[in-house]
């Protein structure tokens, strides 16, 4: 029996509700596949502020340092909106990403036929959409120096600096090429090399990394064109590799393709196997405590955790297959159900977690 330490940080709003379902599924996988998952809970965000006075208490930081992987719900909410920036719940997330050096953000975007109705795109454009965005997370415009607001000769100006080193580009490019190896073997590197010096270096380094992966097709695309192609022909993409700011914008654009923000998982990875896994949505204070939130983004984040941090591919596939079948059979939370002709049964957050657990078990016993 393999032993893995998993830190679970439910956070705020719907965080605890959706994380509870993710943990149910994780425990089911542990029992079926005989893995010892040592699950330990920690406080983060507003919940931590209320109890400990800081958004990331030392105990939580230590828990995360010792863990093989971290599962997070979401942080934030109106209750803590007026706090100074260093005390805000979101600060905890930034500290975790920075402290654990999680430089690669991975967001898979997959189309489920029964959710076509919820997507703003026409169904014929959605068929076959199965892409993943690899976004550089700790460099570029958000962190480059100089940064700030300055005054000179009576004039006020503000500066943000887009800064990338060769090594920062090389390590994120490797993540993208490694991912493509187990997928459709295509990397689209997105930049603005016609204008930006960082993009020219980006292109040069990505090209060099590509030469070590002769089995992968590399194409370069300008970010403005990519934004257009994502709505015109999203099925053309396999792995999209891009820097921090471009990735921030493109991944939100790509997210709407699947119909509900509640469906999408994400992984943030560093040099080693340790990763932080969370649904892409926030704490949704408008529906918190109502047992109607969609937990599938969190459950699919558990699948990513098993795949990337624990190297348990079969187990990750078991969850993804179960989710696909649950949706195909028409079980839907409110966000997916409303006006959807493919929906058969409206289910609560808790019920959705239980149904996924049942489907995981059913599929496992069928294959035994
Ligand atoms: N990573 C994070 O923890 C994270 C990310 C984004 C926002 N936030 C925080 O969350 C709070 C709310 O932010 P927001 O309203 O802009 O974004 P949000 O993602 O929380 O909600 C946007 C809309 O989507 C709906 N929604 C979100 N997740 C859902 C789910 N699983 N099922 C069904 N519906 C869902 C919400 O009800 C809301 O109408 C803010 O405090 C923000 O700072 C946290």
Automatic annotation (TrEMBL):
Top-level taxon in the UniProt lineage: Bacteria
Amino-acid positions noted as binding NAD(+) in the UniProt annotation, renumbered to this chain: 77-90, 282-294
Obligatory cofactor(s): Mn(2+); Mg(2+)
Predominant location category: cytoplasm
EC number(s) per entry: 1.1.1.85
GO MF term list: 3-isopropylmalate dehydrogenase activity; magnesium ion binding; NAD binding
GO cellular component terms, semicolon-separated: cytosol
Location of this chain's protein in the cell: Cytoplasm
SUPFAM superfamilies: Isocitrate/Isopropylmalate dehydrogenase-like
Gene Ontology biological-process annotations: L-leucine biosynthetic process
Catalytic activity field: (2R,3S)-3-isopropylmalate + NAD(+) = 4-methyl-2-oxopentanoate + CO2 + NADH
Keywords: Amino-acid biosynthesis, Branched-chain amino acid biosynthesis, Cytoplasm, Leucine biosynthesis, Magnesium, Manganese, Metal-binding, NAD, Oxidoreductase
Domain Isopropylmalate dehydrogenase-like: 5-356
Family: Belongs to the isocitrate and isopropylmalate dehydrogenases family. LeuB type 1 subfamily.
Complexes and interactors: Homodimer.
Record-given protein name: 3-isopropylmalate dehydrogenase
């Amino acid at each position: 029996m393999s032993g893995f330490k998993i830190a679970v940080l439910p956070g705020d709003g719907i965080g605890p509700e959706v994380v509870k379902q993710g943990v149910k599924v994780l425990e089911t996988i542990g029992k079926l596949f005989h893995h010892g998952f040592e699950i330990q809970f920690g406080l983060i965000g507003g919940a931590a502020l209320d109890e400990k006075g800081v958004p990331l208490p030392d105990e939580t930081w230590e828990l995360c340092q010792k863990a093989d992987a971290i599962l997070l719900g979401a942080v934030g909410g109106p209750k803590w909106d007026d706090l100074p920036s260093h005390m805000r719940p979101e600060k905890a997330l930034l500290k975790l990403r920075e402290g654990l050096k999680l430089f690669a953000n991975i967001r898979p975007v997959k189309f489920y036929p029964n959710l076509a109705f919820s997507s703003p795109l026409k169904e014929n454009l959605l068929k076959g959409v199965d892409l993943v965005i690899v976004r550089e997370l700790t460099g570029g415009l958000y962190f480059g120096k100089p940064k700030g607001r300055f005054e000179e000769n009576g004039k006020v100006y503000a500066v943000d600096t887009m800064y990338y080193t060769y090594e920062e580009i090389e390590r994120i490019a490797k993540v993208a090429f490694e991912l493509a190896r187990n997928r459709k073997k295509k990397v689209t590197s997105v930049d603005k090399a016609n204008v930006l010096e960082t993009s020219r270096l980006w292109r040069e380094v990505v090209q060099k990394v590509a030469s070590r992966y002769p089995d992968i097709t590399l194409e370069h695309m300008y970010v403005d064109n990519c934004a257009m192609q994502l709505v015109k022909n999203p099925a053309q993409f396999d792995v999209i590799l891009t820097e921090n700011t471009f990735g921030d914008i493109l991944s939100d654009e790509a997210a709407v393709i699947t119909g509900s923000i509640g469906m999408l998982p994400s992984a943030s990875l560093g040099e080693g196997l340790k990763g932080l896994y969370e649904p892409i949505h926030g704490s949704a204070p408008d529906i918190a405590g109502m047992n109607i939130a969609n937990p599938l983004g969190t459950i699919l984040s558990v699948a990513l955790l098993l795949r990337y941090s624990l190297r348990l591919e079969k187990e990750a596939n078991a969850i993804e297959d179960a989710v696909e079948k649950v949706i195909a059979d028409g079980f839907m939370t409110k966000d997916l159900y409303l006006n959807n002709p493919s929906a058969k049964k409206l289910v609560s957050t808790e019920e959705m977690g239980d149904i996924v657990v049942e489907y995981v078990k059913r599929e496992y016993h069928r294959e035994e």
